[in-house]
Structures are given as structure tokens and as C-alpha cells.
Design goal:
The structure is a homodimer of 124-residue chains. The first copy, chain A, is mainly α and 124 residues long. The first copy, chain A, is built from 5 helices and 3 strands. Helix content of chain A is 56%, strand content 11%. A 3-stranded antiparallel beta sheet of chain A has the order 1-3-2. In chain A, strand 2 and strand 3 form a beta hairpin. The radius of gyration of chain A is 20 Å and the shape is globular. The C terminus of chain A is likely disordered. The structure holds a DNA duplex (30 and 30 nucleotides).
Chain lengths: 124, 124
DNA sequence: GTGTTATATTACCATTTAGTAATATAGCGA
DNA sequence: TCGCTATATTACTAAATGGTAATATAACAC
């Protein structure tokens, strides 16, 4: 990631954006176990058909999943193995972060956030 | 990523969400070269001070960057080495994806997207 | 053909978000 | 103290986004 033009950057942002919705993460997580059609996902994730179709469309448009039509059903599967690595990375990081975060929360439960700016003197 | 409760999922989504904005990616990319204060980032990225402060606040709140106040300046640096791995993963994937995408675009420049559902017969 | 099922899409609403201008706050130098 | 600089925050607007209900489309069974 050295010299990034705006188009490439927008693509990367879009990619992360696809992963920034809980329902889409649930879909991808479910698809890790194998190919699923819309109805299966709708039942597994307890959401509306229109909604799951919409999110699948987003994931497909960005190339994270692929469509496989079989009769009236459309089966989706993960197209991009990078998805697994990304999620694992974030999950691993999340574990340690949540751990420390929980301790911070316990200490400062009700205290207001203050941006102390007196930490170190200005270098000269 | 086996059994995900909704809170953990929301955290992961938030994490990806932080990476889903071009300007924030630019900031993180710039911070890879070392610690930078707000004014430096403002000049390097050619954006308003309020905007870069806002985005830095988002990144800091999620723990991707840390603050280091020195006098009237506040220096930020990447707090989470995972950021690098994530971006590299996506960039690597992007390269191959854009390559094939470009060829697809060349072929179907003006053609409407059609969802062919006659690929394979329904299994019985 | 009709009816049924599966999926996609459209139109809409509510919420969120990026950006800006203006203001507030904090540290520094004189 | 009084400016001056650096950063954060507030209030606001415009645009994007998630969700839903209704509709459209396509494949199958009959």
C-alpha cells in the first residue's frame, strides 16, 4: 500500500464497507459452512427475504460471494478466501481488545472522557 | 469465528466500518510512515482540520490509533498492527480482482446486468 | 395455460454519516 | 494578563444506508 490513487482507495473502502454490517458478517459466517440459498439464509438468520437478497446483492457486486442458480433457487458461496483471513484477523484482535476494553470500562464506567493534554511538555 | 453473539459481531462490524472510508484509509496509510500530528495530516491529505480531527476521533475511539499530546500538538500513531495486515490483505486481493474486473468491464461496458437463472437444471 | 415457490427489485422511510462553519478549549510565548 | 496556535466539538446539511412492503420475474408442477 504505497501510492494509492483515489479509485483504488475507494475500492478498498468499499470492500471494508461490505464487511461493516452485522447481517452481512452473519451471512458470510454462515457461508463458511458451505453453499446456502436465499431461503436457507433467511431462516438461519431470521430476517426478511428482501433484506437477505439485498445484502447478498451487495456482497456479490463486490465479488465476495458468487451466485449459483439451480432451478428456482440461487445458491451463494464465498468467492474470496481473503474473507476468512480478514475475519480471523479482526476476531483475534477483537479478543484482546475487548479484554482490555472491559477492564477500562470497569474502571471508568461513569467517568466522562477527558482528553488530557498535559501528558508531556512541548519539545523545543 | 464460530459462535458470534450480537455484541461481538457489532464490534467487528464497527472495526471494518472504521476502515470503510477513503480519508480514514489515507490517514492510516500516512501514519504507517510514523507519528503525525493533526496539522501535518491536514496538509498531507489536503482536508479541513475539523474533518481530520473527526476521523481521528473515530479511529481513536475504536483503538486503531493512539493519541500522544505534546504541547499544543497531538500526535497520532497506529496502535494496532492488525491494521497493516488487513490493508495488505485487501490490497493484494484488490490487485487481482481489479485485473479481472477490468477485463469484464471491457467486455460488458454498456451491457445491462442480467441474472441468468438457466445455468443448471434443478436437482431432484 | 394456471398456480406455486424462490429470488430480485422498486419505492419509501428512518437512521446514520461525511463534510463544513463556527465555536470552544488548551497550551505556549511575551 | 493577552494574543496566538493547535485541536476538539457542536450544529447543521446533504448524501448514503438498512429495513420493509409491495411488486416483478423466473422456474417449476400440474
Amino acid at each position: 500500500m504505497k501510492d494509492l490513487d483515489d479509485r483504488a482507495l475507494a475500492h478498498i473502502a468499499d470492500y471494508f464497507s461490505a464487511l461493516s454490517e452485522p447481517l452481512r458478517l452473519k451471512i458470510l459466517n454462515e457461508l463458511r459452512r458451505g453453499s446456502r440459498n436465499v431461503t436457507q439464509l433467511r431462516e438461519l438468520l431470521a430476517c426478511s427475504q428482501a433484506n437477505v437478497s439485498k445484502h447478498l446483492g451487495i456482497l456479490a457486486r463486490l465479488g465476495l460471494v458468487t451466485r449459483d442458480a439451480q432451478g428456482t433457487s440461487v445458491f451463494y458461496r464465498i468467492a474470496d478466501s481473503t474473507v476468512h483471513e480478514l475475519c480471523d484477523l479482526v476476531c483475534g484482535r477483537m479478543a484482546s481488545h475487548l479484554k482490555t476494553q472491559a477492564e477500562v470500562m470497569k474502571a471508568f464506567r461513569t467517568a466522562p472522557i477527558r482528553h488530557a493534554r498535559t501528558v508531556s511538555p512541548r519539545p523545543r
